[in-house]
Design goal:
This protein is an alpha+beta fold. It is built from 1 helix and 5 strands. A hairpin with a 5-residue loop joins strand 1 and strand 2.
Length: 74
């Protein structure tokens, strides 16, 4: 099961295994397909973890992490 769900402004939903891949996919769809915003949520908890939106000039993409990324010890 893919853990993260991306909602593209109610138009459709996408699913990814990691938050990072969900952010990359959302950025790609906003840049190429003309979507204005995407919300990434954790499917297990239902909590919003990140918001991705097109900037006011339509050339920048703003990524807002709602929940802090966990640091993995090496």
């Amino acid at each position: 099961m893919r853990k993260f769900e991306t909602d593209y402004a109610g138009a459709w939903r996408g699913y990814c295994n990691t938050r990072e891949s969900a952010i990359v996919a959302a950025t790609r769809h906003l840049a190429r397909d003309g979507y204005r915003r995407a919300t990434i949520s954790d499917r297990e908890t239902g909590e919003v973890v990140c918001r991705v939106e097109l900037g006011p000039d339509k050339r920048t993409i703003i990524i807002t992490a709602v929940r802090i990324f966990r640091k993995i010890g090496l």
